[in-house]
Input
Amino acid sequence: MRIEGLTPDMDLYRGYFNELSRVLESQQRADRPCVGCELLCGPHQSPTCVCACAPDCPHTLKQMSSEGERYPIEPAIAPLVHAFLRLRELRPCWSCEGHGPGAGSVARPPRVIFYARSALYPALVAEAIATMLFQKKLSCPWEVAVTPIGNMLDASYTLQPDITGDNDPALSQLQTDVKVIAANLLPEVLNAARKHQSELRKALQGAA
Output
């Protein structure tokens, strides 16, 4: 079977271009990843400085949660939640570090649910994950799945391991994957955004 490609839509392409610009320009913002954090940083004693903003900040587990005292972020998933916060345009809204009944087995895998106001943004995350998998950095495939919760106008998605079929990693392997994804998510998403924006720029210039 042969399927014809879609006819280029320049108005749609311009919208994509602007959405990619939002992702790239968001990295120029100076506000802290943890929303509402006003803790004084150690070096400068400033409530706005980002010099100490990192997943291993002693306050991060509570600051990244909207109900930090009751429901702090679990330690093993915290690096990935922080990575999503650094992306700015993809806001995490729920997470789990993964749990098993014992002996490394997995009852509930690690995952992060996040909001995205453009379907382009989770596509960038999926492309970043595919790059890491191609580079053999992950123990098993991970997927980005649509997860309907709350306001459907602000679509939500889940980043989670695909442990169906023959994929049967131990919980410790999945939590290692979490660290790898957290370390690579921001640069890989930005690389994908730059690549696609360059392609769109050429298409729009060619149509002018």
